[in-house]
Design goal:
The complex is a heterodimer. By secondary structure, chain A is mainly alpha-helical. Chain A has a single domain (about 10-215), classed as Phosphate transport system protein phou homolog 2, domain 2 (Methane Monooxygenase Hydroxylase, Chain G, domain 1, Up-down Bundle). Chain A contains seven helices and no strands. The longest helix of chain A has about 35 residues, at about 10-45. The radius of gyration of chain A is 19 Å and the shape is elongated. Chain B is α/β, with parallel strands linked by helices. Chain B has a six-stranded mixed sheet with strand order 6-7-8-3-9-10, sandwiched between helices. In chain B, strands 2-1-4-5 form a four-stranded antiparallel sheet. Classes of the chains: A mainly alpha, B alpha/beta.
Chain lengths: ~220, ~280
Amino acid sequence: MEPLAHPLRPTLDSEQRQVRDLVLEMGEMVDVAIAHATRALLDRDVEMASQVITGDADVNARQAEVHEHCLSVILTQAPVARDLREILGFLHMSDELERMGDHCVNVARIGRNLADLPPLRAPIDLAMLSRTVAAQVRDMLNALVGRDIDRAREIAARDDRVDRIYHRIVDDILQLMVADTRDVYAGTQLILVAMNLERIADRVTNLAEDLVFLETGNVEELG
Amino acid sequence: MSAEAFHIEVASDMVAAVASDAEPLPEIVVETRGLDTWYGDFQALRKVNLSAAKGRITAIIGPSGCGKSTLLRAINRMNDLVPGYRTSGEILLEGAPAPTDPAGVIALRRRVGMLFQRPNPFPMSIFDNVAYGLRLERRRSRRDLAEPVERALQRAGLWEEVKDRLERSALGLSGGQQQRLCLARSLAVEPQVILMDEPTSSLDPIATLRVEELMREFRDEVTIIIVTHNMQQAARVSDVTAFMLMGEGRAGELVEINRTRELFNRPQDRRTEDYITGRFG
């Protein structure tokens, strides 16, 4: 589906494509950052954690580019209706993705802090939470490419599952901390990791709302 | 929203306003019902239902040749002398059929003023331009005329610029000033409606903004219908926008009429969306 064909407005068309490509690129970078930040934490890989932290600058740079293009389109092309929503929608998506990148940096920082400390006395399934959140991000990017609002609504509805995993992890960690106070520091840090991952999933719901707005003009509260 | 649906919505607006007292009644001043017009064999308009309410600026947009100007001229009966021109359907002014006999048309023009694409001041003094319509109403003494002339010039935002040279020729004014003078000339006879046919297309951006600002200022007193090629202008100044398009046999049809914000945000008809986003036209 290619609804953007603008035979009479090639400049607008080209700007819109560039904005969309940049946003998708940001999405792919965030997807990788989630996986790497979690792996760095679980594998105690300080170098990988550092790469996630420095790599966030690239996400930020793309967000700045998106802002620049959107501003230029609004100033020079006076978009209306769907064209204006497209620009505003992608502008907001770039902000959400930039924040998702920041959540990954938070996870990577905690990973770097915990690398030298002994592990918790029982396994916590953060990998599962991370995989579920990353899958949400990837699905949302596909929905965006296909401009599929039904899929976007389904993805937003699946946020419940992320919330359930998150709450279970927090409960597990709390029990460990209650049982052995030596786990309190690491446990608190891991709760923060879970919280950052859960926040990424919440922002996926915002992306779904953006796509619905972009396609229909309606502001829908999903999730 | 379709033209018909908009009528229904306006009616339900009225009910809501009566019930809640929240919104003033939208008083329909100009209305066409199923208006068809022909120039000889060529049908220029087909089944046009347009309504323009008091206190709202109504913009008509659409590509060249879609009948925007014909519709405007039909309301003011300016096409009546064109050979082969005829109409069917209704044109209502405050709910009553617009007059068709010659004397009635003169009275109609007093109630319905018109502003054209290029300013057309008469080759006489600034004062006499504005006083022209008033003199037709047999108000002849200079003292009688001074006050309404000043008021009209003030409403048109021109008084401060011309008060010291009222006796000079109007042709010496700039384009923007001339257009505001024409506006003052229309306003002087206190019309109920002013029809504007691309009133700023020959003006520079600053003069354009001044005219637009004036429209907003007196829209509560005068019902304004503006035809414009400039969609940004329609979005800026109007409360309601109507989109027209050439239909079968090149006859102009009203595709959609809705509140301006809605029409430019979420047009109901695909053809409207394609036009306003620049996909054709």
